[in-house]
Amino acid sequence: MRGKFITIEGPDGAGKTTQVRKITNYLDSIGYKVLVTREPGGTSLGERLRDMVLTLKGESPVPEAEALIYAASRAQLVKKVINPALERGNIVLCDRFVDSSLAYQGWARGLGIQELTNINGWFLKDTWPDLTVILDVDPAQSLKRLRGKKDRLEKETLAFHQRVREGFLKVHSMYPNRTTIVDASQCPEQVFETILFEIKKSGIINI
Length: 207
Ligand code: TMP
What we know:
This protein is of the alpha/beta class. It has helices at 16-29, 44-54, 63-87, 98-108, 113-124, 139-142, 158-174, 188-201, and strands spanning 4-9, 34-38, 91-95, 131-136, 179-183. The protein has a single domain (4-202), classed as 3-Layer(aba) Sandwich (Rossmann fold), CATH 3.40.50.300. Helix 1 crosses helix 8, helix 3 packs parallel to helix 5 and helix 4 runs antiparallel to helix 5. Thymidine-5'-phosphate (TMP) binds at residues 12, 38-40, 54, 70, 96, 100-101, 104-105, 153-154.
């Protein structure tokens, strides 16, 4: 039986990576085979594209080029990693996926959510997530959580990050069945409990 596909989304600093780790540990502990990956990246080509799109060095891509670089990384990941794992019956857990493109490039950069849906739909075909958890938090709060050197997107203005948050809320209103919003201003344990509740509610795991 084909596996299930879960994506974790949200603005920078929302705590996705911590939650991906917690979900993985939990699913492993109850015997599910989980493949964890991330975007941009997850393949050797994807990791090169990640460096290219997030670096502060050299010329910045125009919004359309930015959207296509993320799409190229995603196309590679879907064919090389995600689809084979789903065919093996695994649960695939991805730290960001297509909804980041809809929120960041479609909404915050102003390219259009529908346009980004069309571009990505061309190669995603049936590989849309079964469940997308959107961690929602005020960027004024989440950006303070970022540690270390900031990348090109993290260095964007607060107004940009506020549009990203708005973009994710719009994506949720467009895809209410596939996506769920989780309040990420709570402590990580509470956020995890809420995510677990949503995963169980979706029927992806039986416990
Ligand atoms: P990360 O730091 O969460 O790994 O994500 C890298 C950055 O790339 C983050 O600022 C969000 C951005 N991004 C997009 O703008 N569009 C996309 O499609 C994806 C996957 C990420």
